Amino acid sequence: MNPRAQKSSVALAGAALLALTLAACSGSADAAAPADAADGYAVDANTLVFGVVPDSADTETNYQPLMDYIAQETGKTVEYHESTDYAAMIEAAIAGKIDVASFAGFSYIVATNNGAEITPISSIIEADGQEPGYFSQAIVPASSDIESLAEFAGKKVCFVDPSSTSGYLFPSYNLLEEGIDPEADVTPVFAGKHDVSVQKVGEGVECEVGFAEDSEVEVSDKVRVVAETMVPGAPLVYSNTLPDELADQLVDLLGEVTIDDIIASGITQADSEGFRSVFYATKPVDDAYYDLIRDICAKTNATQCQG
Prior knowledge:
The chain has 307 residues and is of the alpha/beta class. 34% of the residues lie in helices and 20% in strands.
């Protein structure tokens, strides 16, 4: 299908931070509208800007085969745009500075609530038979005697970013369900990236416990999982300002594509251990798929969810 056709006035630790960051970004180079943008493109009609947030050190490498595939099939130059953090990515979308992007579910909601004109196409899966979605995991140092979320109260807690789905929104909701205010009852530490959150928890100094997405947790032997929650898969999106023909082409290209399709198209660099570890195929998602995140926003009273 074509995606075109309560508890605590949490203000979730970092809501104010996000608001300030968004305001600051609006006057920065990352958010300023490019002077040569025309015809609904972020830069120009020959270029597609592919936006991401760097969740790990390998982010650009992981996305390169997919960007090469888009470039080959559309005839456009695909320009990698790595925002400094989730807030900058959201502001880039609001400012019309991206044409295609990989968002977190929560960031997608925040961006669209604040005027970003973007539409979900699909979500990446990493294995055959998998459905979109991944786990937000609560982690402790491997040697810790902590066994449950209830024991996170009073601890230095590593979150990822105030606009991270699996690294803040769902963890905050889960802590609230345990009667723990994620602002007042713990000491929040924002690691910035999922792999950094895992690293800091494993070290057990700056963070005694924390949260991160499962793909980064599973590669570390320094932490242990004590709880997990499935969250909606991160969307690949396109800008609604793109020409209709190109937007439809992006939906056709990215709606249901497998790694074998990409390799068969001539993108042989996709046939690598690194890319296979993060990409098997895409499956279509639409805006309604993210209603669960909207529900969590309402239950946590997350200020940054609001328009």
